[in-house]
Amino acid sequence: MKRSNKTHQTAIIIRHSKYLNKIVEQDHRGVKRILHPMLGFKSLWAARCTIAGMEVMHAIRKGQLMAPGNTPHTPAEQFYALAA
User: Is the separation of the CB atoms in 42 and 60 below 8 Å?
Assistant: First the structure.
């Protein structure tokens, strides 16, 4: 890694942690919850739309999606504004 970093001018580090996979598993837990009752996605378009919607909901919940203007909105108001 040191030689590769020096050759390509990058700063890649190797993190040794027993629980790094848990972060990935937690991230797609919501997708698995939606996917199991549907018995899978029928098309790539459906998968892409579902995942994009979930990412928007996470951004709204975290307060990362701001509405135009400085007026604060509740997550429900932001969602309904996007849907309209």
Answer: no
**Count of structural domains, the chain:** 1
The per-residue pLDDT of the chain, averaged, comes to: 77
- For residue 27, the enclosing domain spans 2-83
Which tokens go with 1?
């890694």
| Residues 6 or more apart in contact with residue 10 via CB below 8 angstroms | 4
Cα distances (Å, whole numbers) of residue 60 to 1, 41, 54, 56, 77: 38, 25, 10, 6, 10
Global model pTM greater than 0.70: no
By the 10 Å C-beta count (0-12 exposed, 13-18 middle, 19+ buried), 65 is classed as middle
